Amino acid sequence: MSTERLRTASGMRPTGPLHLGHYFGVLKNWVQLQHERESFFFVADWHALTSDFANTSQLRQNSLEMVKDWLSVGLDPEQCTIFEQSAVKEHAELSLLLSMITPVSWLERNPTYKEQQQQISDKDLSNTGFLCYPVLMAADILMYKPQGVPVGQDQLPHMELTREIARRFNSFYGEGTFPEPEALLTPAAKCPGLDGRKMSKSYNNGIFLRDAMDDVAQKVRGMFTDPARLRKSDPGNPDVCNLFPYHVLLSSDEERREICEGCRGATLGCVDCKKIFLKNLGAFLNPLQERRAHLDQHPELVMDVLASGCARARVRAAQTMEEVREKVGLLRIAGL
Q1: Using an 8 Å Cβ cutoff, are 145 and 300 in contact?
Q2: H-helix or E-strand containing 54?
Q3: Which helix (H) or strand (E) holds 8?
Q4: How far apart are CA 69 and CA 288, in angstroms?
Q5: What does pTM read for this prediction?
Q6: Alpha-carbon distances of 299 from 78, 212, 286, 293, rounded to whole Å
């Protein structure tokens, strides 16, 4: 019986600062998975170019800042492989080979492609790279032959397409070449923005992992709560309050009970509720930001993590591509 560890692979686009939604929706799960599976986590810088190709001035800095955030929340380069997608050229080669067998109709029916074409009006999404985004994503995943991939509900169509591409490759070139990875659904973590909309950099309504607590306090003071509760003496409803989902994530069971009782009974005001949130948020953010400050002072540590991670990823990617080239029938010339 094989004793090889289960594997997982996932990435994130470096398009700006990470916020609480990124942590509770993605990174918290990554931190757990690194102890359970052989884990490959990559900076998806090529993916960022599919929509932000016209302005790449912040791409390098965003990539480095994102890795700092990853390390500060608990990703451990001794427990997982952290690397930059574009530094492992095999990803591009496998994406090219997979594109040869992927019907255009599969890409055009992708619901994410259709939705973003309709919803994003300030960027040109008519490029081939954006259409072929799922093929590159499939290459990123299949390169490491993972049994499972952590995704949110919205990524299930992409995961199914990855599985279809794996099946198609296997049917042409050899069963068992690529496993069909299962989606490891991340429990939904509700992190509404300060204004009630989805937390997003583009909406300027987020609490970011690198925000100073003074700035966070100012943001939270202006945060929407229960729209029907205009005065402390008005009974409230935590179920519709914009702030309460954060108590679910950060406050103790006892605190949540007291908040619910005080809100519904009009004995605890929104100002007091926000103070409890800020206390617990500070306890969460302060150690994270201390680790990040150390990385800011020693940027060479981040580069070392990426260099080591890229080297490890290349070893695995080279093994996969040697097998793929052989099965596809590409001529291999000695020394090249």
Answers
A1: no
A2: none
A3: strand 7-12
A4: 8
A5: 0.91
A6: 18, 20, 20, 10
Tell me the backbone φ, ψ of residue 185, rounded to 5 degrees.
-65, 125
Least confident of 7-16, 194-203, 229-238: 194-203
Q: Count of CB atoms within 10 A of residue 325's CB?
A: 15
Which of 120, 127, 147 is CA-nearest to residue 162? 147
Cα–Cα distances (Å) from 51 to 60, 95, 161, 180, in that order, read: 16, 18, 20, 28
DSSP state of 187: P
Q: Tell me the sheet residues that pair with 198.
A: 192
With beta carbons less than 8 A apart as the criterion, state whether 246 and 256 touch. Answer: no
- 9 bridge partner residues: 40
> Using alpha carbons only, what angle is made at residue 298 by residues 292 and 302, rounded to the nearest 5 degrees?
75
Q: What is the pLDDT of residues 126-179, one digit of tens each?
A: 889 889 999 999 999 999 999 999 988 778 889 999 999 999 999 999 989 999
